[in-house]
Structures are given as structure tokens and as C-alpha cells.
Amino acid sequence: MSEHIVGHRTVDDDVARLSWTDDLSERGWQAAVDVVRRQVALALIDHHRVEAKVAADDEQGNRIATWSGLRREGVERRTTGDVVVYARLADDMPVHEPGGFRAILNSFLPRKRGISQMLIRDASAPAEDPRVLLCNLTYKTDWDLPGGVIEVNESPQTGVGREVEEELALTIEPGRLLLTDWLPPWGGWDDALCLVFDGGAHPAAVVDQIVPQAREIRRAEFLTLAQVDERATDFTARRIRSALAALASDGPRYSESGRVSPSAAGSGGA
To answer: Is 0.70 surpassed by the pTM of this model?
Structure first.
């Protein structure tokens, strides 16, 4: 395999752009990776960053970029077809070291959005007609359980406590996990995992202590299940019922869009 089919050029201060021709992999995938890896090392002699942009539908090209030591940084959207942006910095940990190899894997392995919510109940409501604290959000018309997206490297249990304090000014220690609910892609969102933690039962007057975060929360109220059906989306209403049912089980339940399968409901677990 000749070296002229892969090369690099300077595109910005201290930045090199790597490119190769379509016939790079004709003599084998591993040989192609070796050639690109050498070109990456060569480019980093005079540049701090070397990058490559590979068509999103070019499966072989994306494999070559990844296993040549380039980390996936994201997708650049184009009208002519999206491209995946890869890059390596001169001070990145070497790929042959465990930390460097893990960083490569971490850059391209699938990731799911994590959401943590808290089930807070009205202690004065009868068990057969529970009332649950829901929030009227500023950025959508339907109501939802308090909580939000988990931050990077934040524990889901810590995250839900933080969200409740930030959004409602309530300090409530999250209890046990009640429900793991998988949310399929919806309304422009990719799929996500929603974890519902027990927030316990509290006096109805706790709502008087709430100071809604004006940017996200209009108000919060304890709602009956009938009111939840009126104000929340159907999958949120299902999730709340599944979480309430999990209170009586030995362990957390698993659901998809709020629906618990018969086997999961029977076991009290996943």
C-alpha cells in the first residue's frame, strides 16, 4: 500500500486536516489503519491537533478513523450529507495505554440521555386515591414529575435531589429507586432512560414552601390520578402509575413508555 493515498494539510493555526482516497482499504482494513495512524503521528509533529471528517454513511471510513487513534467529536450537519468529525491532540494519552484506549471507546460508544424524577406524595391522601406532586413547566404545556436531566458524571440519585432543590427550593432526600422507564424517540428527542426515585409522603402544606424556578416552573401542585390524566402526557401518566405500583414491591420495576410487562410486574424487578 503506497503512502500517497493518505495525507494531511494545515487548515488553521496548529490544526491539520487528514484525508485519504477511497481505495485506502483495498489491501485490508488493518493495513489501512496502520497507514492512517502513521500519518496522524506525522501531522502531530508540527500541529497540536489533527482532524478528519468522514461521511456519516461511510462505515469503513469511520472504522479506520476510530482505530487509527482519532476520537469521535460529533456530527457536522450538511445539506449534501452529514460528516463525522474525528480528532486527536498532541497531548492525548497514547492509544496503547489503557486510559487512551478507553478514551477512544468512550468517544464513539452509544450514550443514552438520563433523566431522574422524584415521586412525592401527599401524606393526607387516601391510598386508594393518591395525590402526586407535579410541575407545570414553562417550556411545554403538559405537567410532569419534578426532576430533570442528569448532568455528565452525576449520580442519578444525587441529580434528582439537586433538580428538586433548584426547581422548587425543596430539600428532599431521594429514597429508593422505584422505576426505570425507557422512553423511545419522541418529538425531536432521542431515546432516554428515566429513573423515578421515591420522594416520600409529605403534608399537603409542603406546596406552600415551594419557590418555583421562574425559568422552568410555573407552579407545582398535588394532583389526583384523574387530574394527572388531564394535565400530563399519556406516557407520563402511565409512568406515575407504574411508580406508585412499585412502592408496594420488593424492588424497582422496569417499564417502556410507562408500560410494565406482565413478567416485570410479577417479579417486582426488571
So the answer is: yes
